[in-house]
Amino acid sequence: MRRLQRRRDSYRQRGLVYRIAWVTAAVIVVVAGLAMVVFPGPALVVIPIGLAMLSLEFAWAQRLLDTTLERGLEAKDIALGANRRQQIVGGVAIVCGIAAVAAVALIYFV
User: DSSP assignment of 26-85, as one string?
Assistant: First the structure.
């Protein structure tokens, strides 16, 4: 987070064209991450990267990124504290979710 704050300070000194290009690239990254929610891909990695890029320009993106990171840490703590039964149920739920997305993709896009 300290590195992001230093980056934010140097970002403010950049020109308008650079900042517009940066925001455009950030929006593309976030949209790609959102597409990865439906299609295969590392959405949980790509979306926060896009939010981090947007947070250099917009306060709302910084707040959303902070909230996302806090909830991610909470989810990690919960996952680490899960017992064996919860891990199995979670794994089965993930497999069922992937199967459902694949089935929808096959039915509607093939």
Answer: HHHHHHHHHHHHHSSS-HHHHHHHHHHHHHTT-HHHHHHHHHHHHHHHHHHHHHHT--HH
Burial 59-76 (b: 16+ CB within 10 A, else e): eebbebbeeeeeeeeeee
Minimal CA–CA distance to 41: which of 98, 110, 93, 103? Answer: 98
CB 43 within 8 A of CB 33: yes
- 109 vs 38, 39, 97, 104, CA distance in Å? 13, 12, 18, 8
The structural domains of the chain, with segments of one domain joined by +, span: 2-81
54 touches 28 (CB < 8 A):
no
Q: In this structure, are residues 49 and 25 in contact, taking their beta carbons and an 8 Å threshold?
A: no
Each residue of 45-84: pLDDT tens digit? 898 899 889 988 888 988 888 898 888 888 888 878 888 8
